[in-house]
Amino acid sequence: MKKYCYFNGKIVALNKVDINPYDIGLLRGYGVFDVMCTENEKPFLLDLHWKRLQNSARELNLKIPIAKNEYKNILQKIIKLNRFSKSTIRTILTGGPSDNGFNHIRGNETFLILVEKFMALPKEVYSKGAKAITLKYNRQFPLVKTTNYITAIKHQKIKEKNKAIEIIYFQNGNFLEASTSNLFIVKNNQIITPKKNILSGITRNLVIKLAKQKRINVEEQEIPEKNFFTASEIFLTATNKGIVPIIKVDDREIGDGRVGKITKTLINAFNDFSNKYH
Question: What is the DSSP letter of 41?
């Protein structure tokens, strides 16, 4: 089936995309991106994703070449053209072609929107839980969703060898986030999630709201190692994963090794919210 995307002002077939070899997104990794999914054929939480893309672009002095309303219209068109039952939308903005590999001309950015078939995790991940591994690392610009995922990609083979679903980062004795997810723990029937030195995820923020609606206390604070490994529950959140229960980290079992009560409550609340989204 022919795939379509948006590239520098036009909706084109994916095989017609022609990236300039001197683009500093390619030469230097200078760019930002955002990922969202569709629910009921509509971009899920689009306004929040757009705002985050704007914030990331601003931090790197990049200019998004279109306004939000035009962005919405383009998404509707390429979602319809690609005809997936559920889609993943990837929006990429780079510094564009550079004459010396360092300078970028504001207003000459490369802008690309890809629509892909949504690839769901196996159902048993949510019902039985998954494993994660840990890595000492924190991202250089955690507040910006940059295209730099070198550390995560470098460690993919280690993750796969350990049959883990994610890599959870820690630094200076505190656990922060995962390679493509936000981190939550449950301790003494209270949810704890880091607030500093992380990318504040869209799904993360929604889950915090859903938890408060369920009258579950949420604290945004540091997670030291002693609290992390003694948590009764751990779960991760991400746009393309929803809420993922973690029952094992490295070789250590979390809680009783089963998906916890609070995690189950939030998975049900998140699924209910998503199914009703319009």
Answer: T
Cβ atoms 119, 82 nearer than 8 A: no
Q: What CA–CA distance (Å, rounded) separates 235 from 193?
A: 10
The amino acid that residue 76 corresponds to is Q
Judged on CB neighbours under 10 Å (0-12, 13-18, 19+), 163 is exposed
Task: With cut-offs at 50, 70 and 90, classify the pLDDT of residue 57.
Answer: very high
Asked whether the predicted pLDDT for residue 37 surpasses 90, the reply is: yes
Amino acid of residue 4: Y
Query: How far, in Å, CA of 19 to CA of 112, rounded?
Result: 10
* Model confidence, pTM: 0.96
Which alpha helices (H) appear in 35-122, and where do they start and end? 46-59, 68-82
Tell me the C-alpha distance between 206 and 219, whole Å: 14
Reported as a single tens digit per residue, the pLDDT across 83-133 is: 999 999 999 999 999 999 999 889 999 999 999 999 999 999 999 999 999
d(CA 184, CA 188): 13
User: In 3D, which of 45, 3, 23, 149 has the Cα closest to residue 93?
Assistant: 23
Mean pLDDT of 125-151: 96
Q: What domains lie within the chain, and their CATH numbers?
A: 4-117 (3.30.470.10), 123-275 (3.20.10.10)
